[in-house]
Amino acid sequence: MIYHHRKIAIMLCMLLMAQGLLSGRLPEANASEEVSSTAEVVSVIAATYYVSQSTGEDSYDGLAPEWDGTHGPWKTLEKVSDQTYSEGDTIRLKSGDAWNEQVTLRGSGTAEAPITLTSYGAGNRPYLYRDNGIDDEVIRIDNGDGYVVQGLEIANARRGIRIIADGNTKPRFEHYRIQDNYFHNIQNLYGSSPGDEGTAIDLVTVPGDKPVFADIQIRNNIFRQTEIGYIMWSDGSAPRQEDVLIEGSTFMENGRNQVFQWSGQNVDVINNLFYYNYPTKYFGVGLTSVLTESLSGEEGVYNEVDGNEFGWAGTYPGDHDGTGYDFEKSGDYIHFTNNFIHDSYRYGVMFMGGQVFHDLVFDNNIFQGNTLGTKDSPFNVWLRGDNSGSGQFSGNQFYSDDGVTGFYQKPAGFTYANNTDPAAEPGFAAMPMVTQVVTGPAERTYTFASATWGAELRYTLDGSVPVADSPLYTGPIAVSGQSTVVNVKAFMTGLHPSKTNSIMVDLRESAEGDGPAHWWKLDETTGDLAEDSVGGADGSLTNGVWTAGAVDGALEFNGIGSAVDVNDASLVDIASNFTMSFWVKPRSEITLQPEAGNGITGDSGQRYAIAPAYRGGGANSTDAGAGVSIGTNGISVVEHSDMYLPAVLVDDGVTFDPEKWTHVAVVYKKNQPWLYINGVFRKAGYTSAKTVHPSADIGGSGLGRFDGLVDDVRIYDRPLGIQELQQMSVQAHETEIPAFAAQWDLLNAPGSGTEHPTGVAMDDNAIVFSGDGYYTITEGEVAGINGAVLKRPIDAAGFNVDFTVQQISGDLAAEDDSWVSFSVLDSPQFFNVVKPEQAQGIVVLMRQWNGKLNVEPYKLTDAGFQSQGATTLDTSALNHAYELSLEESGGIWTLMIDDTALNGDYGDLIGTVLAGQAYAAVGLSDKNGGWNRVAIRAVNGEQAYGLLQAPTWQDGFLNVGNVGADQATLSWGGATDSSGITGYRIYRDGVEIAQVDGSSSSYIATGLAPATSYTFKVEAGNGKGQWSGRGPGAHVTTDYEVPDDMSFADDWQLYTGQQGGQALPTEARLGSNGIVFMGSGYYTVAGGEVVPANGAVFKQPVDADQWFVRFTPEQLSGSLSANEDSWLAISLMSTVNYFDVLDSSKGQGIVVLLRDTGGKLTVQPHKLTAASGFAAMPEITLDAQTLQQHELRLVNDGGLWRLSVDNVLLDGDYSDMVNDTLGSNAYVQIGLSDKLNKQNRIRIHTVNGYAAYLPDQTERAMSPFWQGDTMYDESLLMVSADGAMPEASLLFEPTDILSVRSARLDKTFVEGEDWEYSEGKLRLLPGSSIPYMTEAELYPVQPAPNESVDKRGGGAVLLKEGSFFHDRQIVVTYKHAEGEWEGPTPSPATEALPRTLAKLDAGQPLKLLVLGDSIGTGANASGIINAPPYLADWATLLQRTLESRYGADITLINYSQPGTTTLWGIEEAEIAAAEQPDTVILEFGGNDGVGSDELYSPPLFRANMETMMSLFREENPNVEFILVGPSLANPETYFDGKQRLYPAELEQLAEEQEGAAAVDMIAVHEELLRHKAFRDMTGNNVNHPNDFLVRWYAQMLAGTLISSSDDANEPGGEGTPTNPNQNPNPQPGDSSATEGAATSAVQEASREQIAQWVREASHSSYVKLTPAGQAVDVQIALSEGLPVGMELTLSVDSFANPDWIGIYRWDQEQSEWIYVGGTLDASGRLSATIDRSGVYAVLAYERLFSDVPSGHWAEGAIKRLAAAHIVEGISEARFEPNRQVTRGEFAALLARALQLTADGASPFIDVPEEEWYAQAVAASFEAGIVRGISPDSFGPDSPISREEMAVMLMRAYDRNRKPIIAQDSGTLSYSDKEDVSVWARADIARATEKGFMQGVGQSRFAPELGASRAQAVVALSRLLSSIRSSQ
C-alpha cells in the first residue's frame, strides 16, 4: 500500500527513523544489484542530496550540506550520475564550487513533484563546464519527465542541457523547467557544417517512434556566445512540441539561429531580448534570431511571439539571410505581435517563399533600421507573392531609411490595415541592455544602456512595469538577494518607449576584482634582474636563460643551479586567501609523494617552479609558505614551516607536455589549495592547520630545482574566480585541437582579411576535413589553403589513402575550379606550385564533373608543376568510398583509384625525392565561396584519426621482487604497439636510470639504500621514436639490513608473541633514524591468562613527567573502520614487565593503543591500575596519515597531566599515574598485536628525547677522525659558484669513496649519476638529485632580520636555524691514507684530571655537569634540531662513550643555555654548584667574543671562568674541570671576534689551577678550515656546529678522558653488504610434469621460508600476500602410461579469510607465486590439481584499490574475485567500479570465472583474433553462453544491458549445474516487465529468483540500463557461489 496522506507519511518517517531504519531515501542506483524493492512505502518520501566539490566525498551519503559526523555531501557529478531519482527529489550543488564533468540525470518526476537540480549556500552560482567545447553535454536528462534546472552557470561545452527522449518507450515527455540559469561559450569549436553547432538547450530523440515534448518552460535565462540557444533535433523530422514557453530571457552574441520554434502547437516566445547574433563560424545557411517551422494550432490555442526585441540580427559577411524572425516553413495560428525589430543585417522578418500560413496575426510590431547589409533588398518584411493562407497584417510601423519599405510584396489572402509605411514619427527606443555586472559578497550591481542615443532609462525594483515618472536611472543599480526583480525601460521624446528589460536573477557571482599584487612578467630578455612590475619585489636571477615564452619572454631553468631569488618579505602580508598563477613547460618528472596534512614529504624528488618559502618561527610556528613542484608526470603543492614540509595537494592524473605551455593556478581559499590547469579545476587539497602565505622564488631552491621554462608569474591577494582563470589561460585553449586530429597539422586559409580555419570533425570511422579557402597564385606567391599534413612520415612506395569526398563546391562542367587534393611529398609542408623547393612529390587534384569524380595527378619537381592528364570516373564524386594508391608492376609505378589506373609513371619520384620518409597531405580549394569536405579513414593502412600511437599498456604491470637492502628486481609486461616495442626506459624517483631493449621484461636496480622508499616506473618505446607516457609504476621500500650485531637493541628487552599457538619472536632492525620492531603475534586473553603479542621494553627507567616518544608506524594491519582488531601500543609502566590487562600486579601505568581508521591514526589510551583494572580513556582519530612520524608525550596542562599526540591534547587526567604510580622510575614499552598475521612494524626514533638505539650511532660517530684510514660521514654543502656545477672539498684525499648520503642518512646517491670525484673535488653531475645551494643564496644582497647577518665588507650572509642547512648537506664515507691529520689531537689528562680518570678506571659512578652557551647545549646536532639521524649532543655522546668504555654509571647534568656569556655563567654556577658534580665542563666564548672589551676582553674572560671554578669548589673541593674553548664563527661575519684569543687564556688557567685541563677547539676548527669551507661544518652558517663538528667536540673530550684511545672500538666499514635474500637452504625442484606422473613425495615446507619468499615476491604494492595455511614440498615422480596430475589437499589457518585464499606454487626463477587455484571443502581444507613438482602453499591474496574504499557495497565481491584472479583493476591502483561494462568485458569475466577455453575462433566479424577478449568470446560462444547480436556480430564494445547480463548469467548457471535440468521459465513481477525483451524474460525471472540480480527501485528491472563493473562482479560472485553450492 502507498500512503498518500501527508500526516501518515510523516508519522511513518518518524517511526522508521526511531527504529534506525531511515536516514533519508536510499540512493537506489548506487548499487542497483544490492538494493531490494521491498520498502515500497519509503519511496514516496522525496530526498534532498547535496554535492560539494570543495568539502564533499563520494563515500558520504549526500544527505547533508556539510559533514556532520553521520551525513555529508557527495563530491562529484559522477556520483550524482550513478543514482536514479524519484518524484520530488532535489540535487543541490554548492554555490561557489565548480565541476568539469558531465552529469546524467535518470528517473522521472511530475509537474507537482519534479526532480530538481539547483544550488545551495551563498556565493557564485555552481559552475558546470567541460573542456572548451570538445566534450559533449554538461547536463543530460536521460529519458525522463518532470525536471527543474535552476540557478546554475553552464559553460564551455558543445551542449549545455540535452534532454534525450526515446519515443519507442513511451509517446510523451513533459514537464521541464529551465530557469534562472546563465549559459555561455556553448559552441563546437571544430564543427564545420550545419548540425555541428553548439546548443545551450537541446531536445533530442532516438531512431524510431517520435515522441511529443510538452509543458516546457524556459524562463529568465541568459544565453551568451552560444551557437544555438534552444533547438530540437532528431534523426529525421523534428519531433512535435506542445505547450512551450520561452520567456524573459536574454540572448546575446550568439551564432546561427538563437531559437528554433519547430513542429508543434502553443509554442510561445514572450518578452525576450535577442541581440547581436553574429556567429563566429559560417555555416552556409540562414542565420536569424528565431526560426519557426511547421507550427500548428486551433482556435484559442496559438503560437505567440509577443513583446520581444530583435536587434542586430546578422550573419558572417556574405549575402545570406540575417533576420530577426524567420517564417521558414508553413505554419498555422501564429500571433506575431508587439515586437520591436531593428538593425537587422538583411530583413526584419522573412517569410520563405511558397509557404502557407493560416490564421496568421501579424500586428502592432515596430521596425527600424533594418537591411543594414543588403540595400539591394530594402524591405523590412520579406513577404512574397507566392505566400498564401489567411490572416492579417495590421498596426505595424516601419521607421526606415530612405528607400527601405515595409513589405516586399502583399500576397492575396491576407488583410492589411493601419500599417504605417513609412511611419511619420521617429522610431522606437531600444530595450535597455545589461552591459556589466559587478558582484560583491552581499550585492550585485547592474549597469544598463540603451542602443538609442539620448534615451532616458526608468526602473523599478518591485516587479512593476516602469512608466514615464518611475525612478530615473542615473548609474549602476545595486541590488541584493536573488529574488529582486529589476525592470528597466527606455523613454525618449518623440519615440515609442522600449520594451521592458526584466532582470530576474544575476548573471553570475563573479570574484573579479583588482589585478595582481605581484607580477613577474619575465620579459627582460637580458640581465640578472627579474622585475616585479607591480609590487616591487624584484628577484635576482642565477644561471637562468632568457627565452621566448607563453606571453612574450620567459626564463629557462636547468634543474641544477638556476633560480630567481625574490625578496618576498612583502608577501608575508598576503595570507590564507590568495592565488599563485604562472605558465610552465617542465622537462623532467618529480616524485609524487602521498598527500599529507603534515610531515616533510616535500623534501624529496621535487622540482619547484615556485619554491615554498620558509615561514616558520619556532617549533610551534603557525605560518607556512606555499610552493608548487611540477614535473611532466604531475604536480604537488607543498607548504613549508618548522619541521613541516608536506605535499598538501598532489595530482598524478595530470601530465605536462614539455613542448606545450601549460597554465597553472593554485588558489588558496581559507588555507585550502585549489588547483586549476589551463583554467580547468582539478582538485582541492588539505586544509592547512597553518596560516599559509604565497611564495615567489621562481625556479626553485635547495629544496628542489625546476627543470624547464616558467613565464608570467602572478600573485593575487585574493582567490581568483574560475571565469578569471579561464580568461587568463585562454591561450592554452586556443591552440588545442581534438584528440582525433592529433596526427595532423591543420592549415588555415586566409580570406577577407581573416583566417578561415580548417574544420575538423569525426564521422563514423573517419576524420573529416572541411574548408572554404581558395588556392591562388599572386605575384609568384601561393596564398594559403584549407587542409592538413599528416605528422607521421610514411613510406611512399606503400602510399594508400581510403577516403570519401562529401562535398566539392562547384563543377568543372560549369568552369567552377574547386577541388580536393591528396599529395605525397618529401617534406611535411603543403605543396607550392611556384616553389617546388619547399616540397616535391605527387599531387592529385579531384574535382566534380557533371556529378562524376574527375581525377588529375601532377608531378611537382624542380621542373615545376606538371600535369599527367585527367581521368573522369564513371562513379559519383560525392559520398562514394574510394581508395587512392601507388602500385608497382614491371618496374612502373602507377597511381590507382580503386581499379582504375591514372596517367603517368611515378617511378622517378619513388626512387628519388620520395625515397625513405615521405609525407601525406590533403587540401581543399573552394573557388566559389562554398564549402568542401572530405572524410579520410586510413593512410597507408593505419587509421587517420586518433592520437599519434605511442605504445600503450593493456593490463600493464610493474612488479618489484627480490627486494634486498641494496637492490630490487623489476619485472613488467602489458605494453603493446602496432609496430612493436623496441625498448623500455626505467625510472627511479622520476629520473631515468636505464634503458633496455624491447625483448627485455626485467631489470635489477642496484645501488639502493637500505630501508629507503623508492618509486619505479617503466615506459615503452616503438620504432617511431614514440614513448608511452603513463606506464606502470610501483613503490618499494628496501629491506633493513639483517644485523650481524644486535647490540643496537641492547637497551631493549624483546618479547615473544604468539599466533595460533605458534611462538613468534619479536624482530628488531636498525633503521636510518630509529630502531624498528616487527612482529605478527596477537594479544589474546584465554583461560584467565594473557598470551602476549610481540613487543619490547626499554630497560632504562625514565621520568614519567618527561615521557616523550617519537615514532613512525611502518605497518599496521587491519582497520578499525573494517572492525579488524590489530594495533600498536606505546605504554609507560611501573615495571619492566609487558603489560597484562588481567594482572595489574605485573605493572600499572598508561597503555596507548594505536589503530588505523581508514588511513588515519586512531589513538586509544587506557589506564591500567590495581583498583580499576584496564580502563579506557577518551580517544581521538587524528587528521593525519597513520604511516607517518608522530609524537606522543605527557604534558602538564595547568596542573593536570594530559596526553598529547602531535601537539593535540587528549581529554583525560593522568595526574595520578604521573605523580603517584609511575614517578621517575617508569618503563617505556612497545607492543605489536597483529590479528591479521601481516607483521606489524613500528620505528621508534626517540624515547624521552634520546635516540632509541645507542651503540651503533655512538660508535660510528665517535670513531676518531685522526686515526685509521676511514672517514665516516664527513659533511659537505655542495655550492654552485658563477653557474658552475656545484662542488665541495673533502678533508683528506680519498682513495676509495664508500658512500655519499644525505646528512639525514635517508638517501644514498649514485656515483656517475649524481656525483663524481675529480680534480680534488666532489662534484655534482647534470640531473643530480643531490641538494645544493648557490653563492647567491648564501650571500643575500640585503640583510633581513632572522634571515641573514651583515657580511664583512658589505652585503649579507645567510642565517638559517633549524634543519635548513642540515637538510641540504651530504655526508661522505671514504678511505684515505693514514696519518693525514695535521691538527691537534687529544691525549689523556692523566695528570690534570687524576680523580676523574681514577673513578672511570675503577668503573665508579661519575657525575658530569656541563655549563656553557648554545654550543654547550649541542646546537646544532641533528638530535637537538629534531632531524634524522637524531645525533645526540656532544655531551651525551661523551657520556655514552665513557659508559661503554669504562662500564661506569655516568650521570650527565647540562645547565647550558643558548645566547649566554661567562657573566651569565657566574650567576648560573652558583645554582649548578649545588649538584656537587665530580667533573665540570665549562664551555664559553662564542658570545663573549663579540661582546665589548670592557666586559669580555681575554683577561676578563679568563677571570670569569676562574670565578665559576671557585663557585663549584666551594660546594665540592675535589671537583675537576675541563675548559673548552669555542669553535670559530663564520669568518665572513662580525660574529668572528675575539674567540681566537681565548684558548691561550684557558691553557694558562688550566696550568695554574689544580684539577683542570683545556681543550682547544679553535685550533681544531682552524685546521679543518684549511681544507674545507665553513659552510660544510655549520648548522646555521654563522656560529653553530653541525653533526660533523659536534662529533669533533665529543671526540676531543673523549680523548682527554680515555686513557688509551687505541682500545676504542672501530665501527664496521662500508664494503659490499651481505645479501639479506640469500637463502641458506637448497631450493626445491621446479621441473615440469610430463605424461605419466605416477608417484609423489610430499613433505612439510618451512613456514619461515614461505614468509621469506612472500616478502621477496614480485607483486604490486596494492596486493597484500600473506601465508594462510599449510605449505609442502611436492616431488612428482614420472612414469610412462599414467595420467598427469595429482590432487593436493592442504589445511587452512583458522583465522584466514576464506574469500581470499588459494593454493600457490613458488617460481624460484621469477621470484613470484603462481596461482594454482583451490576448492574449499566443508572441513576447511583446500584442494587443487597440480601437475609439477615444487613448493606449494596456502596464501591469502588481498587486492586493494584506491577507489574501492573499505565499506564499499561491492568490496567483498571485488576482493573475492580478485583473489580468484578473475578480475583485475583498470590500473594498478584503480578498479573504476562505476565504469560501464561492455559485452566483450563481461564475456571475458565469465570465461575466466568458468575456466572456459576455445577450440577455434568465434564466428563474429567484429571480434578480431588479435583483440584481448577474442578467445574469451570464442570460448563463451562454444559453451553456449553468448550468441551475438546477429549471426555474425557480437558488439564487443557496446555496453552490456541488464537483460543481456541476466541471460548470460543463467546460461552459465545452466551449463555448470550437475546434472542440467529443464528450468521453469519463472514469472516476472517487475512493473516494467513489458519493456523486457521476450527472449530475456524467463532468464530475468530466474536470475531474480536465484538472487543473481535484483531490481533498481520502484519494482523496476530497467532491462535497457547498462551495468557497472561493480554490479557485474557482484552478480558474477553470486553466480559462482550458487554453482559451487549446487555441485
From TrEMBL:
PROSITE patterns: FN3, SLH. Residues 1603-1645 are annotated as: Disordered. InterPro entries: Beta_helix, Cell_Envelope_Struct_Comp, ConA-like_dom_sf, FN3_dom, FN3_sf, GH29D-like_dom, Ig-like_fold, Pectin_lyas_fold. SUPFAM superfamilies: Concanavalin A-like lectins/glucanases, Fibronectin type III, Pectin lyase-like, SGNH hydrolase. Residues 1-23 form the signal peptide. Residues 954-1041 form the Fibronectin type-III domain. Residues 1741-1804, 1805-1863, 1867-1927 form the SLH domain. Keywords: Signal. SMART domains: FN3 (SM00060). This is Uncharacterized protein. It comes from Cohnella fermenti.
